[in-house]
Amino acid sequence: MSKEVLIKINEVSKIYGDGFQALKSINLEIHKGEIIALLGPNGAGKTTLINTICGIVFPTSGTITLDGYDVVKDYKKTRSAIGLVPQDGNLEAFETVFNNVSYSRGLYGKKKDSAHIEKILKELSLWDKKDSKLRELSGGMKRRALIAKALSHEPTVLFLDEPTAGVDINLRKDMWRIVKNLQDKGVTIILTTHYLEEAEAIADRVSIINNGQIILTDNKADLIKKMGQKVLDIQLQDSIKEIPKSLSHFNLTIGEDKQTLCYIYDTEAQSTGITDLLQSVKDSGLKLKDLQSTQTSLEKIFLKLVSSLSYLNAIFF
C-alpha cells in the first residue's frame, strides 16, 4: 500500500548570488506521518534544502509542494503548516518560557490559547520552567523551548535542523523520545543530523545528501539490512591491475593498495560463497598472503557513500 505524499520536491536547484550551487536537481517525496533523516557532511546542502521547503530561501529552479500547495506561490498557506527548529534559534533571553512560546503562536495569526501552550510545555517537560527566564535554562532545556516555539501554532510538519547538536547522550535520547511522541500525534518530521545513531534510532527513512545532490533515499530497515554485510579482505602476495575473468562473477573490488581483493557478502545468506571464492582465487593462480573479515558499520558505509558514488553502485545496486 502506497503512502500518502505530503511534500513533493521536483528538480529543485539553488544557485546563490556568488554563483555557488547549493542544490542540484533535488527530487524527493516525503510521506505524511513519517520521520525522515537527512544525512550529509557540513556544506552538503541540508540546511539549504530545509530552508527552501520552508520558503525561507527561494529555489532557482524546480518546484516544491506541501499537501498540493506550492511553497512559493502559496507561501502563507504552506508556512502556517510548518514548524522549524533551526540550529541556532532566537530566544528572548529575558522573557519567560511561557510568554516566549505564546508570542510565537501570535506571529502566525493564531488566537491566544493558554491551554494549548500548557499542553506543549507539559509534553516537553517544560511546564515547571514556564515562569523561568530563558537565559536561566540549560542548553537542553533551551532546545526544548525552541521545539515548543515551533509547535505553538499547531503545525503538521516539523523541521529539526541538528536538534541534538552539542547535548549529551542522555539528553539526546530524551529528545528522541519527544520526537517519536510527536510522530505518534500525527506530525511529519524531517530532521538533519550528524549522528548516524540518531537516524537509526528514530527515522523511518534516510536520505543522504552530498554536494547538493541526493545520492540515496531508502527505508531505514532496508538500509540496515544492506549494511548487515561483511567485507572479506583477501590480501595477495603480488599486486594486480584487474580482476581475473574467472573471478568476475564474484562481488569483488580491488583495494587501494592494488594487493587486496575485497569481497562483500551477506551474513544472513544461506551461503556466503567464501569457500567457492577462495578455491577460485587459488585456481586463478593468485597467491594468498592473508585474510581479514570486518563488519561494515553505518559510519563506514556513510563515509564511503559521500566520497564515492561508484562504491554506492557496487554496494546497493
Task: Describe the fold and architecture.
With 317 residues, this protein is of the alpha/beta class. Helices cover 33% and strands 28% of the residues. The protein has helices at 46-53, 75-79, 97-107, 114-123, 139-151, 169-184, 196-202, 220-227, 274-283, 298-307, 309-316; strands spanning 5-15, 21-31, 35-39, 61-66, 69-70, 82-85, 157-161, 188-193, 205-210, 213-219, 229-236, 252-254, 260-266, 288-295. It has a six-stranded mixed β-sheet, with helices on both faces. A hairpin with a 2-residue loop joins strand 4 (61-66) and strand 5. The longest helix is centred in the middle third of the chain and has 16 residues, at 169-184. The protein starts with a strand and ends with a helix.
Strand content: 25-35%
Tally of helical segments: 11
Q: Residue ranges: pLDDT <50 for 5 or more in a row?
A: 309-317
Distance between the termini: 24 Å
List the SSEs and their pairings.
Layout: E1 5-15, E2 21-31, E3 35-39, H1 46-53, E4 61-66, E5 69-70, H2 75-79, E6 82-85, H3 97-107, H4 114-123, H5 139-151, E7 157-161, H6 169-184, E8 188-193, H7 196-202, E9 205-210, E10 213-219, H8 220-227, E11 229-236, E12 252-254, E13 260-266, H9 274-283, E14 288-295, H10 298-307, H11 309-316
Parallel strand pairs: 3-8, 3-9, 6-7, 7-8
Antiparallel strand pairs: 1-2, 1-4, 4-5, 9-10, 11-13, 11-14, 12-13
Helix pairs in contact: 3-5, 10-11
Name its key features.
317 residues; alpha/beta; 6-stranded mixed sheet; 4-stranded antiparallel sheet; 14 strands; disordered C terminus
